[in-house]
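Researcher: Structure prediction, please.
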Amino acid sequence: REGGEVLSGEAALAALPPGALAAAQNFGAVEVVTVDARPQAWEAARYFMHLASRYDRLADFTLFLHPDVFEHVNPRTLRNLLHSLRVG
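Model: Predicted structure follows.
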């Protein structure tokens, strides 16, 4: 996937894997920005572009997660983080 496509609402939820979908339903709004994660695409540029283009209207919390997030983060750790963000 080329990356840079912004999905919101039902389209964003449909793009999430089941575990992330369950967590996302605890938040008022979810936006998914697709990223070309190939090393030559320099994914960090997309993260910076997201922050820069929304600087004046950033969400209270922004998480940047790889499509293979659970290869990098323990699912329980991510669940605990999302729960903490939800309840404060």
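Model: The chain has four helices and two strands.
Researcher: Thanks, that helps.
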